[in-house]
Structure formats: C-alpha cells, structure tokens
Design brief:
34% of the residues lie in helices and 27% in strands. By secondary structure, the chain is α/β, with parallel strands linked by helices. The protein has two domains: 255 residues, Ribonuclease Z/Hydroxyacylglutathione hydrolase-like (Metallo-beta-lactamase, Chain A), CATH 3.60.15.10; 145 residues, Flavodoxin domain (Rossmann fold). It is elongated, with a radius of gyration of 24 Å.
C-alpha cells in the first residue's frame, strides 16, 4: 500500500524529504515492468524569510502528499517551488499545491519547463513563473541557489539546483533509481547493494536513449567543482545520498559509459520447441569452460522475462549473445522486441554473437545482422542452421564463442 515518509535530513539548513513510496505501480511510463516499485522524492527547506519546495509528486498521490506536507508547513507559507523536471511523476501535485498556496509562490524552472507546465496544467500554474538561465544564481532566504541545466537527463527541460553555502545538489532524475529502499539515505551498505541493480535498470530504461548525455552532464558538473565538494546529492527517486554523495554520480558514469564487469556475458534467446535452446546449451557450456559467467534470459513456452530486466544487464556485460528462431519470415517477436529496445536504450560498443535456428527458411540471423550493423554493437559472427544442432553446428558454435571471448578481451 502506498505511503508517505518524512525525514529530517539536516538542521542547518532545516531540510526535509517527503518521500511517496509507490508499491502499487507495475509499469513505469506504462512500459517498464517494475515489481520493485518506485519512490517520488520531494524536499522542503525552511530558511529565514523563505520556505522552498523542491518538486512535488505524482498526481494520484496529491492528497497524501498535501496532507503530509501540512505537517511541516502551511502551503500558504511556501515562497518558492523549484521544478527540476516537469514529468508528471514530479509535477503532478503542483496545481493543487499552488491552488492551496494562493498562487503566491514563485515557480522556478527552465523556459522549456514553463512551456511544458503550461501545456500539462494550463495557464494558472505559470502565472508566477521565473525562467532561469544556465548557471544563474538567485538569493533565497539568505542562501545562494545556483541553477544548472542538464538537458536530456532525461527531458530537455531538466536542471539541478546547487545550494552554494551548504553544498547541496538537488538532482531530480539524475541519481535516481527504481525500488523502495528500507532506508531514506545511503547509511546501510546492504540496502545500497540491493538498490544499485534497480538504479542500473532505471538508468537504462528511463535515460538510456540519451545515455551519452549522462557522462557529458556529469563532466559538466565536475568542471564546475560541485560534485567533489557536494555534501549531499538528493534525487527525485530512491535513496538520498547523504553519507557518500559522489558514489551515485560515479555509478551513473559507469553505466553511462558501459564499463563491463569482468567475465559477465549476457545471453538472450527464444526457443519455441527446443531447437534454439539446444544450441544455447552448447554456447553456455563453452562460455563456462572459458571462465565466463553467463547471465541468461530465455523466452520459452514456460517463461517470458521482463525486457526491463534484460536492459538492466546490458551496460556492464562484456559481450552479448542473441539466440533467435525464424518466425513467419521474421525474427521471433519476443526477441525482436527485446532487441529493438536494446538498440534504442542500451546501444553500447560491445561484441555480439548471433545464433539462429529455422525450419523451412532462415531469416532471423540476417535481419538481426542488419539491425546490429546500424548500431554501435560489433558483430562477431552469425551461426544459423536448420532444425536440431548437428555435430558440425556444435563445432561452429564453440568456435564462434571462442572468437567472441577473444574479441571482448
């Protein structure tokens, strides 16, 4: 059941997190399977002569959010609302908040954010909107707020806020992850270890199409000197990074750059009647003989893994092996969809081996080759043949695996 949690993060300045734990959601953005759930984090800062709210929450949780917010401050007391990213999981409660505020608060964001908010919620929410420029600073309640644009993390409207005197980074989607961690912050290593795979999955599914901008924008923040000196990094989803703030941006960099985990090989395949599976058994056996650690996802008549989980395995894999049946003169539909999303969301320079099986005509291998040729992936080999694998097929498969492993270094 969804709930709202409040925790005081620091006393100077007086800063609170308002975290909505959404365990009811099943498909983020109506697409990505997330049985682990997600949180929506807003932050409230009380300063001399100012009360600042950083983002809100998803519309369906507006009443819960407002009820909880009122335990900390009267909505009429809020002087500034900073909108880092207008996606409705962060801005959905904004119309209600401003209504109860009497539309007195200054709403701060990028020009792009203003246009999106107007389109989402109408003219009223932007009556008192202040559009910022990249790097602009504003004095609020005796503090210096610096606004830094980080477009395509993951919308063009996105920015972060840096509170200069207190070295606080409010980063919204950058630094976020799926999951509902037991703790509010990064104080428990076990919680972090369980949480980070959800972060990878989040990065790939939500930001993956623009993953090159992860490294670019984090480098931008590093060049400004604010990452190394940050006291806290406070995202819009998941853990607040209060103990070791740099860790989450370093993790984002690794995923954005696709840095591999030693010996990890991702294996994905479909098998309608066991012909592809017979081939993949040979492939997996050879991988293990070579000291590799295959991570296997299979689509069969008994199982169909979530594509979001597969995507989360791509960035730190050394190599990828795709097994596919030819189905109605096409790639098997499950593999076709998974492959489409990999090429869109997790397009990295990694070696790929294609393995195929067919009945009356082989098509899947060639079609996958065409798709791979348009991507950053490097095609190592294609081994495709009819029916059950023969001794010659086994020889070719083992040779292809050895070639793949050599290629991946």
């Amino acid at each position: 059941m969804p709930e709202v949690r409040i925790e005081k993060l620091c006393t100077d300045p007086e800063l609170y997190i308002i975290r909505v734990d959404d365990d009811r959601i099943r498909y983020f953005e109506a697409t990505w399977d997330i049985p682990e759930g997600i949180t929506y984090n807003a932050y409230l800062m009380k300063l001399k002569d100012a009360v600042v709210l950083f983002d809100t929450t998803k519309a369906e949780y507006t009443d819960m959010f407002m009820e909880t917010l009122k335990k900390l401050a009267d909505p009429k007391e809020i002087t500034h609302v900073i909108v880092h990213h207008t996606e409705p999981d962060h801005s959905g409660a904004l119309p209600k908040l401003l209504e109860e505020n009497g539309y007195k608060a200054m709403v701060i964001g990028t020009t792009f954010a203003r246009n999106l908010l107007q389109g989402f919620y109408g003219n009223k929410v932007v009556e008192n909107f202040r559009a910022i420029k990249d790097g602009e600073e504003m004095k609020i309640g005796g503090k210096t707020f610096r606004f830094i644009t980080v477009p395509w993390l993951h919308w063009p409207d996105t920015m972060i806020t840096y509170v200069v005197e207190d070295k606080l980074i409010f980063s919204c989607d950058a630094g976020g992850g799926y999951g509902i961690p037991e703790t509010i912050d990064d104080s428990d290593e076990k919680v972090i270890e369980e949480y980070l795979p959800h972060v990878t999955k989040y990065i790939v599914t939500v930001i993956g199409h623009y993953h090159k901008y992860i490294v670019q924008n984090i480098n931008k923040l590093k060049d400004l000197g604010i990452v190394t000196e940050a006291r806290m990094i406070l995202p819009g989803h998941g853990l607040a990074w209060c103990r070791h703030p740099k860790r989450i941006f370093e993790y984002y960099e690794r995923v954005g750059a696709g840095i591999p985990t030693k010996d990890k090989v991702l294996v994905i395949y479909d098998s309608m009647y066991g012909f592809v599976e017979g081939r993949m058994g040979i492939v997996i056996d050879e991988l293990k003989k070579l000291g590799k650690k295959p991570i296997v996802y299979r689509f069969t008549d008994r199982e169909a893994p979530a594509v979001s989980d597969i995507l989360g395995e791509v960035p730190d894999s050394e190599a990828i092996i795709i097994g596919a049946s030819t189905y109605e003169a096409e790639i098997h539909p499950r593999i076709r969809y998974a492959l489409y999303e990999i090429l869109d969301k997790a397009n990295y320079e990694k070696p790929v081996l294609i393995v195929g099986a067919f009945g009356w005509g082989g098509v899947a291998g060639k079609k996958i080759e065409t798709l791979i040729a348009r991507s950053k992936f490097d095609l190592v080999d294609t081994v495709e043949s009819r029916g059950r694998p023969t001794e010659e097929d086994e020889k070719r498969l083992r040779e292809a695996v050895r070639k793949l492993v050599e290629w991946s270094g």
